């Protein structure tokens, strides 16, 4: 079940994530997104993988692979956004952060296994 952040997401963290994605965006991009997926959760250790995409049409849901300034930096930024979640919501299975060329963003969390 997707959930939106309960509190206001940190604008500085959002900007840092976008800045990292922006290095690989073409001039005609319409949206860019990052999908962070938990691949291991042992209770003590959690590993998350990121995939990065962009599209030149707003209707494109698949996108093309996007090169960023570094997956680790984006992952840290997405994890920093956990502060906007209630403690019991911080163990999401997937997070999706989408940016549009109009300057908007959308953040969704999914808790399904």
Q: Could you explain the architecture of this structure?
A:
This protein is α+β, with helices and mostly antiparallel strands and 113 residues long. The chain has 2 helices and 6 strands. It has one domain: 2-Layer Sandwich (Murine Class I Major Histocompatibility Complex, H2-DB, Chain A, domain 1), CATH 3.30.500. Helices cover 19% and strands 34% of the residues. It has a 6-stranded antiparallel beta sheet with strand order 1-6-5-2-3-4, covered by helices on one side. Strand 3 and strand 4 (64-65) form a beta hairpin. The N and C termini lie close together (10 Å). 20% of the residues are buried. Residues 1-6 have low confidence and may be disordered.
Unreliable parts: 1-6
* Proper CATH architecture: 2-Layer Sandwich
The number of E-state strands comes to 6
The number of helices is 2
Number of domains: 1
Indicate the percent of residues in helices: 10-25%
Along the chain, the helix and strand elements come as EHEEEHEE
Shape: globular
Q: What is the alpha-carbon Rg in Å?
A: 14 Å
Task: Report strand %.
Answer: 25-35%
CATH third-tier fold name: Murine Class I Major Histocompatibility Complex, H2-DB, Chain A, domain 1
Which class best fits the helix and strand makeup?
alpha+beta
Question: What strand order characterises the main sheet?
Answer: 1-6-5-2-3-4
Largest sheet: 6 strands, antiparallel
Highest-level CATH class: Alpha Beta
Question: What gap, in angstroms, lies between the N and C termini?
Answer: 10 Å
Mean pLDDT: 87
